[in-house]
Specification:
Elements (H helix, E strand, L loop, with lengths): L6 E6 L8 E7 L2 E7 L5 E5 L14 E3 L2 E3 L6 E3 L4 E3 L20 E5 L2 E5 L8 H4 L1 H6 L23 H9 L4 H4 L5
Antiparallel strand pairs: 1-10, 2-3, 2-5, 3-4, 6-7, 7-8, 9-10
Length: 180
C-alpha cells in the first residue's frame, strides 16, 4: 500500500510565536495555514472557506483573532470554527457549529511544523526521524532556534542543477576566486 507521510509546510513554531500568528503556505498546490492557538498549540488548517472554498487569506504571514473570508464574510476563530456568517441566521437549520475550516494532521518536531494532506494520520515524524535525532539533531536543541531572516527567491533555472551546484565545492576556487 501507499505509505502516508507528513510534509513540512516550510514553517517553524517561532514563525507563529504569539496567539493568532499564522503562516500560509502551499503543500502540493493546496493552500494551508498554520495558526498559533490562544492556549499555545499550533493547528494547521486548509485555507479554504467552508462555504464556497475561497481562500480565507492570501497573506503569507500575519496575526488575526479572526480569519474572515473575503468572498461572503464568513468569519472563523483561530481554531477554524465558524463564528459568524452574514445573513445565514435566516436559513432554517443553519448552525455555526456545523461549519469549520478543515484541520489537517499536524506535528511539531524540533521547532518545525509538519502537516499531512492525507485523511489518515501519518506515521509520526518523531518516530520516522528518531535515528536522525539521536545521531545528529538531538544535540543542537533546534526547537529553541529562532529565525533571524526569511527570504524567498525565484530563480529561472533547472532546480536540479541549482541544488547540485550548491552541493559541491569543486567550482568554488575557480568560479568564486575573488571571494574564496
Amino acid at each position: 500500500g501507499v505509505q502516508t507521510c507528513a510534509l513540512p509546510i516550510f514553517g517553524r513554531t517561532d514563525d507563529v510565536a504569539a496567539p493568532g500568528d499564522f503562516i500560509g503556505r502551499d503543500i502540493a498546490g493546496v493552500s494551508v495555514l498554520a495558526v498559533r492557538q490562544p492556549g499555545g498549540a499550533t493547528k494547521v488548517l486548509l485555507n479554504s472557506c467552508a462555504h464556497r472554498r475561497a481562500r480565507v487569506t492570501d497573506a503569507a504571514t500575519g496575526n488575526a483573532e479572526r480569519l474572515i473570508c473575503p468572498y461572503h464574510g464568513w468569519t472563523y476563530d483561530c481554531a477554524g470554527q465558524l463564528v459568524a456568517a452574514p445573513f445565514m441566521t435566516s436559513v432554517p437549520g443553519f448552525d455555526l457549529a456545523d461549519h469549520r475550516l478543515v484541520e489537517l494532521h499536524a506535528e511539531l518536531w524540533e521547532g518545525f511544523i509538519y502537516a499531512s494532506l492525507s485523511p489518515e494520520r501519518p506515521e509520526p515524524v518523531a518516530r520516522r526521524l528518531a535515528g536522525f535525532h539521536a545521531d545528529v539533531v538531538g544535540r543542537f536543541a533546534m526547537a529553541d532556534y529562532v529565525g533571524v531572516i526569511h527570504e524567498t527567491m525565484r530563480w529561472d533555472c533547472n532546480w536540479k542543477n541549482l541544488i547540485e551546484n550548491f552541493s559541491e565545492s569543486y567550482h568554488v576556487p575557480i568560479a568564486h576566486r575573488p571571494t574564496f
